[in-house]
Input
Amino acid sequence: MKHLKISSKLLVVLAVSLSLFLSACTASEKENKRDQIRIAEVTRSIFYAPQYVAIEKGYFKQAGIDIDLKTTWGGDKTMTALLSNGADIALVGSETSIYVNSQGTNDPILNFAQLTETDGTFLVSRKSLKNFSWSQLKGKTFLGQRKGGMPQMAGEYSLKKHGIDPHKDVTLLQNIDFANIANAFASGTGDFVQLFEPQASMFEQKGIGHVVASFGKESGKLPYTSYMAKESFLKSHGDVLQRYTKALYKAQQFVESHSAEETAKLIAPYFEDTSVTLIEKVVQRYKEQHSYAKTPLLQEEAWNNLQRIMKSAKELDHPAPYKQYVNTTFAQNAIK
Output
């Protein structure tokens, strides 16, 4: 009987110990629980450097967020992923939210954080032009971007700014897929081409072409690439998105305050086929023309410039009011 009593006491002690252990595990699990955010990025680009910095520096993890990043290669596919709940957030041109919402929806797409604030393309000439002037495009063949996309609209806006009608004064080619534009130019098609980095700098290195102008500088400040989500997601995941935007802001400040070399080394794993030296050159070029947004706050003036450019390209049928398309709450709180 004495042995039985000792065993009973031991069982009680073990039960209490087990209870405390399970409680500690539960508390630890709650403390270490992370929220997952699925991001669909429209392309993989050095243009999006702050995003990769936020991941590599652990800013999202510090905010209790795990990032599931997928490259969806194209605005249509990116928005399809968002609308079909295949992604929580889309990183894509702000104009896509206007296209989608204009079709009518009970759950509108809202822009809540800005990543880039200028166009990211450059005008590349086949010939070296020491004293370039925009008038030199007249009568030439120009490989543009997809109709209705922000690169093409910014490109057309820039040409018009310099007195060139893109549909009359140049032979405008828009029948080549985005992925094949650079190859088409390299194989001899066109006198001028509109390219993103690092392709523009690569062509310079190889002697295929020469960067003669920046469409980012010409078209001015605009919400070129932003993070957007369904209104319902913003309401149901407000706390997560606030932490997300704060982490993004930290990365934007890092890119702004650190050298192009430091940023290039951080984001190099995302561009395995590109040398760190070239990445650094591209980052520096984007920094110099202020393409990387310093904060996630999408300004109304920039939004209105976006509408002007879309209207000039005849891609905006009705006004897209800033307050109906942009939620500034998370950005404003992040930068306080």
Summary: Residues 59 and 250 are 7 Å apart (CA to CA).
